[in-house]
Amino acid sequence: MDLKIAFRNVFRNRRRTALSLAVIVVGTAIFLLTLSFIGETLESSRTAVVCETGAVQVADPRLFEDRTKGYDYLISPALRDRTVAMVAERPGVTGTGWRLDFAGLVGTENGSTLLLARGVTTCSCVENYDCFAIEGGALPADDSRQVLLGRALAAKLGVRIGDSVNVATGTASGNFNAATVTVAGTLTYSTEAVEKQLGLFSVQFAQRLLKTDGVARILIGLRDPETAEEFAAALERDFNESGIPLAVRTWRELSPSYTSLETFYTAFSGLAGVAVFVLVFFSVFEILTISFLERTREVGTVRAFGSSRGRVFRGFLLEGAAIGVLGAALGIAVGALVTVAFNAIGFTSTPPGGAVPLALRLSLSANIVLVPFLTVVFATLASSMYPAWKNSRLGVVQALQSV
Amino acid sequence: MGSQSQFCHVRGNRFLDAQHLTKTYRVGGETVYALRDVTWSALQGDFVVINGPSGSGKTTFLNLISVIDRPSSGEVFIEGEPTSAKSEGQLAHLRKTKIGLVFQSFNLIPVLSTEENVEYPLLLQKRPRPERAARVEAMLREVGLTDFARRRPNELSGGQRQRVAIARALVTGPMIVLADEPTANLDSKTGETVMDLMRRLNEEHCVTFIVVTHDPAVSRYARRRVRIHDGQLEEGEPDGVATPAS
Hints:
Strand order of the largest sheet of chain B: 6-7-8-3-9-10
Structural class of chain A: alpha+beta
Strand order of the largest sheet of chain A: 2-3-8-5-7-6
Number of strands of chain A: 12
Largest sheet of chain B: 6 strands, mixed
Radius of gyration of chain B: 17 Å
CATH class of chain B: Alpha Beta
Oligomer: heterodimer
CATH topology of chain B: Rossmann fold
Order of helices and strands of chain B: EEEHEEHEHHHEHEHEE
Number of strands of chain B: 10
Strand content of chain B: 25-35%
Distance between the termini of chain B: 19 Å
Shape of chain B: globular
Helix content of chain A: 40-55%
Helix content of chain B: 25-40%
């Protein structure tokens, strides 16, 4: 009966209830959309980071700590194979690959420019080149002389797919080496500055050019990148026990910008949550206070019939909760509809310094729905607390005398 | 109501005792006496009408004997038990189990139907659903509102609302029903019907009725007539007892 009374009271003054619900719906929907935008941004950033770095990387500690001399950090084939075998035994691994990066020059007869080259394992299932939106062919899994150039770099050099460019760099032993390679395709990168210098080769070609059989990093793919910390800690323990002199880093550690982004968005979503809580709390507080005070005589009546203060208090709280749950559910529905519509329209935006426009999307998940729902229900419940308490504490006679 | 006898075998047992009741209020730094050293008792089966002009202390007296208010001094005994030392919860329990109330403005809960309003005090008593349903049905039959069970208060006339209020007051089988100006918001014909009903229920169920009114027409229903003037109470003779219309 108390629940029945609470629900019926919600619809007693429809205009007032509509006003409360409007505030709650708007607050919930705004918070939901904020969280879904943040969720999608973080998710796509994470995907981009993980597909470029792998979920976990293994390398000589000097490489991670930026205190190398020449190529003294390279991992030998024997150590690489031993490490890869150890990694493969661990659960959750989707694949391994390795990389050999180098800097050099790339040019044509018309001029040359700086090259930041990556020698990558082309079929490792770890690095996902779809992230780089390749135009043209993929790299072969051998040491053939082919390169994928950054789109901006190709434009700068005035070359197209099928053209030849010259690549020059220092070898692992410090000598000079150069080769002529064919442009197999072009790729885009999130930042234009990198795209102007980026070239991808097969790791076999990079080894051939650098005259080494070593690799710089071993990349590990995980089924769930969120387990990277746990995986890295266990792998590091294995390395220590087996005497493998390599260090382990997670994708988060390798991408401080992601951590900054995550911290910023976490703080932002927290602030948005507080703002929505305050908005709902004060708006609904005002409305519920009036609504509860209007029923003071009813409180007197039920108290006169022997209802306890606690029961009266609970009744008002139930009413607050009913408005909160109803408003939050409607808000979630509105937010979800806006999300679907937004994604269907397909907005894009080029970030500052970005090379390509990115699709702006909103995502929905259980967490994204639950957080605004609970925030708003809690805010409504909190806002009904004081007027409910105040009304339940009134003396019976005082309450009955209320007009 | 079904469990109560059709005849009042226990009429005359002292149920309610008010001893030296005084109620004062502070108004603008001065002490105002609403009730002054009132000693009075009600017997089971009584039908008492309390008269008095506005501001004489009638409602204050009713509030004190219905234990919804506490006296400044003095004591209210219910079935011989003092009430002044009881907690709010204990007083609420006393009202829930022994006292029925009827208000001038009916005070029905607008969001509940007739039957739900009548059921409400039984819910407070945590009675099981089948018992609640049976009692509500019997009570609505008693006050002639069976056909209006699903109606909300705003769909009822004033007289019907007051009958719902009477049914609500009686549904728990209280020892005493206290009615504050039950006919004040009704026309004279409807007021008469309501008073007839109360009187009949008093006769049939041996429930003590204490009716506060300034309506002289109500006085003729009194078995006992009491007058309050300037916070003091004097027992009077009934005008002549009206029998309920059949």
